[in-house]
Each structure stands twice: as C-alpha cells, then as structure tokens.
Amino acid sequence: MKLAEFALIVFGVLLNAAAQLLLKAGTRQVGHFDFSISNAIPIGWQIATNPYVFGGLCCYAISLVVWILALSRVEVSVAYPMLSLGYVVNVFLAWQLFGEALSTQKLSGVAIILVGVYLVARS
C-alpha cells in the first residue's frame, strides 16, 4: 500500500471517529430522552439544531467521499479492516474528552485490534 492510499484511509477513519465524538457531544447536550410521540418533535428539533450533531453529520459526509476515493485505490479486503482503527482512536478520545472508563479489558482489545490491522496492512 502506498503512503497516499494509507493517508486516505487514515483520514477517512479519523473523520469517522470525529463524527462519533461530535454526535456523542451533541447527545450529551440534549441529554437522556425517551422515544415517544409526544417528544418526537421537540427532541428531534433539539438534535437537528445541535451544532455538534451537525458537525458530526458533516464529518460523516466528508468521510464518505474520502472513503470512496480510498476504495478506488485499495482493495476492500485491506481497506475495510482498517476502519477498526476508529475504535482505537475513540477509546482514547472518549476517555480524554468524556471521562469514559479505560479498563485493562479495553486496552487489551485495543492491542488486539492494532495487531490485526498491522497484519492486514502487511498482507
């Protein structure tokens, strides 16, 4: 895999990870809500007008374009497993930004993901 191809994949992964984090930040602002007919419009409006949610959706849209560019250059059997790097990024950023737990079990899972991505990338 060439450096430019790898960079496209990583950029797409980072955009996707940023989208997840922005959506989480937006839902934290909105708060816990129940699905019901009575609050569908008010909660829907809060979500639709939340700048973090909007930013997350924008990141998703851009990541889709970047992903299509990457898939035009790299085999899907190599590119797709690299999406799991987003899990690694999000584990650490969720810990830093939202105070989510970073347990030994999570770190073990991250290590396994990294080994798997390395093996796929080397194939």
Automatic annotation (TrEMBL):
Q: What SUPFAM superfamilies does the annotation carry?
A: Multidrug resistance efflux transporter EmrE
Q: Where are the transmembrane segments?
A: 52-71, 78-98, 104-121
Q: Signal peptide span per the entry?
A: none
Species for this entry: Amantichitinum ursilacus
Q: Where in the cell is it found?
A: Cell membrane
The record's listing under InterPro entries reads: EmrE-like (IPR037185), Small_drug/metabolite_transptr (IPR000390), Small_multidrug_res (IPR045324)
Residues annotated as coiled-coil are none
Molecular function (GO) terms for this protein are:
transmembrane transporter activity
Q: Kindly state which keywords UniProt assigns to this record, in alphabetical order.
A: Cell membrane, Membrane, Transmembrane, Transmembrane helix
Q: Which Gene3D superfamilies match?
A: 1.10.3730.20
Q: List the protein's name.
A: Putative 4-amino-4-deoxy-L-arabinose-phosphoundecaprenol flippase subunit ArnF
User: Which classification does the entry list for the species?
Assistant: Bacteria, Pseudomonadati, Pseudomonadota, Betaproteobacteria, Neisseriales
| Primary subcellular site in the record, as a coarse category | membrane
